[in-house]
Design brief:
heterodimer; A: mainly alpha; two-stranded antiparallel sheet; two-stranded parallel sheet; 16 helices; 4 strands; B: alpha+beta
Chain lengths: 576, 153
Amino acid sequence: MITEQKSTISITLKDETNGLKISRWLKTVILIELLLPISLLTLGIYHGLMQTIYRSGVIHESTVAHLDYYQGLTLHGVINAIVLTSFFAVAFGHATMAFYLKREPNKKVAWLSLVLMVTGTLLAAWAMLSGNASVLYTFYPPLKAEPQFYIGAALLIVGSWVPLFNWAAMYVRWRKENRTTKMPLAVLGTLVNFTIWFVCTLAVAYEVIVLLLPWSMGITKDVDVTLARTLFWFFGHALVYFWLLPSYIMYYTILPKVSGGKLYSDLAGRVAFFLFLILSIPIGVHHQFSDPGIDKDTKFFQTMLTFGVALPSFITAFTLAASLEFAGKKRGSKGLFGWMKKLPYLDPNNYLFAYMISGLILFIFGGLTGIVNASYSLNAVVHNTSWLPGHFHMTVAGPVFLGIIGMSLYLITTLKGKKVYLPKVNVVVPYLWMIGVLIFSTGLMWGGLIGEPRRTNLGLSYTNPQSPLYHAEWVPTTFLALCGGIIMTVSACLYFVVFFGTLFRKSTAPSALEFPVSEAYHNERRVAFFDSFKPWLVIMVIIILVSYVPAFIQAVSNSGPGAPPFEPNNPVSVGK
Amino acid sequence: MIDKFEKYVFTITAIVIMLFVFSLIYARNRKRADVPDCLPYDKTYTTPAVKQIDSNLYQVYAVAQMWQFQPSEIYVPVGSTVDFFVTSKDVVHGFDIYDKNVNMMAVYGNINKQTVKFDKPGVYKITCHEYCGVGHQNMQAEVIVNYPDAKNN
C-alpha cells in the first residue's frame, strides 16, 4: 500500500536548525514544573510498591515506616495522578506553544500559575503526610480531610487554569497574522486539552470550594453526598483525557518523525482532538453506574456518548499504525507485518520512540478493558474491584506515564544542553516498565473478576491466613500483582538514576527548545470547520447541558438529608 | 481527501461500535441485566431488616456503617428472589455480592436497589469495596442460602 524508496535512516532527536532560543525565565518555569513532580514521584512510586506488598499478604500490617496503607494510597493517587500530570501538562504546554507559535507566554501570568500550583501541592502534601487527609484522591464526602487538603487541591487546579488564558492570547495574536494557515496540530491539541480541563474543573472547584471546604471547617453542617459525587465525576472522566492528551499530541506530532516516517493523516488528528473536546466531559456518569439517585436512562444515554468517545481513539489507533507501517516500509520491510520488525525499538539515541511505543502497546489493552468498564450492565461485574486499577494502570501508567517521563527527560536534555546519562539503560526502562505493568495488571484484573476489592489493605484480612476473613483465591492474584509491582519499581529506579544523572551532568551544548517535528503523508488542505474553535465550543456546551442537566436534577431531587463529616478512624461523626 | 484505507477503517469502526451498542441494548432489554433502580430517599430503608413478602420473595434493608453491614447474616431459602435496598449511616461504602453481579454503592441520604435470585444453596459473601476508613478491610457480610429451617438448627 505504501511504497517509498528504501533509504538508510538515522534519527537523532535533536536537529540544531530547529532549536528555539527561549528566555531564561521561561526555561526556569518549565524546569521547575518538570523537576518538582519527578522528585515527588519517588514518593508516589514507593507507595505503589508498598501497596502490592501489603495487598499480597507478605506483611500483615496497617503501617510501615510511620505511613499507613490508606495514607500511602492517598499519596500515590494524588502525586502520580494529579500533581505529576498537571505540572507536566502545563510545562509541556508552555514548551509546545512557544515552539510552534514562536512566541512566549506572559511572564507574570506564567509565574502566577507556577506559584499557585506549588503552594497548592505543598499544602496538600502537608495534610497528607501529617495523616489528616487519608481520603484518597477521589476525596468522597462524608469522609473528611483537613481544610488545607481542600485548599491545596483548589490552588493546584486554579493554578493550572491560568496558562490557558495565556496561550489563548498567544493563539489569537498568531491567528491575526496567519488567517489562512492551519494552526499547528500540537497547538490545537494543547488548547483543546486545557479547554476541557477548564470546563471540567469548574465542577470540582465548586465541589471543593463551595461544598467541602466550609463543611470541613465546621461552617456548614452537612453535604449532599450524591451531588458531590456527581460534581466529582463531571470532572473525573475528563481528567483522564487531560492526562492522555499530552501523550496524544506526542503521538501525532513526534512519534511519526522518530519512527522514521510521516504522520499518515494530519486531518485525522484534528478530527480526533475536536471529538475529544466535545465528548470528554458529558460521559462522567459512567463512573456512577452503581450509584443511587441517578436514573437508568441518564446512565444509558451517557453510555452511548462514552462509545462515541471511543471513536477518536479508534481514529488514532489506525492513523498511528498506518504511520508506523509507513516508517517500517521506508526502512525496507517486506510483507504485511514486516514493518513491525523494522522499527527503531532499541536505539539509545532515539529513546523517545521506545517510551512512546511501549505506552502505545499498553494502551491497546488499556483501551479494550476501558470499553468493558463503560458497558453499562457489564460494569456490575467489575465495579470497584481490582479490575479497575488493573485497567487504568494500562492507561495512566501506560501511555500517560511513559509519555510524561520520556518527554521530561528529553526536555531536560534540550533545555539544559545535556546528554542522557546511561543511554543504553535509558532505552530499556520503558520496556521493563511495560512488562511490569502487563504482569501487574493481569494480576489485578484476574483478581477483580473473582471479586477482589480495590483500595483495600488485603494483607490484614483477606490474604491473612490467621484471619477469619481469609480468602485463598485472592492469594495468587495479589502475588502476581506483587511481581509486576517489583518489576515496575526496578524500572522506575533505573529511570530516576538516568534522570537525575542527566540533570547533574555538565552541559555540553547550548540550551535551546526543540522538538522532533513530523511531516504529514496526507497533508490535507485547510478546512475552516476543523481549524476553528468556535463551532466546536458551541457543540461542546450543548452536549454537556443535554447530558448533565438531568443528572444534576436527579442527584439533588432523589437525595435525602445531607451527611455530617466523618474521619477515617472514627465511626462517630466529628460534626456533632 | 480521505484515502481508501481510511474509508475502510471508518466503516469497520462504525460496524464495531454498532455491534457493541446492539449488545448493550440486547443485554439490557432481553437479558434484564441492568444498573440499580433509582429511588427517591425514604427513611423506612434506614432501619436494617429482612422481610418476607411471600413464599419466595424477600426484601432486605441493608445498612452499611463503619465497619459492618446490618443485617450481617441474611438467611433466605433456595430459589428466593431478594430485593436489596442499600444505604449508609455514615461514609460511602460498597455492596458487592460475590458471584451475583449485585454491585452497588451505599450512600448516606440515598437508597440504592437491586434484585437478585438465589438459585443455588451456598454462602454468598457481601464485600465492602469502597474505602470507608481504617476498618475497611474487615467489612463483610453473608447471604446464607439454604432450606428454610437451617437458621433454627
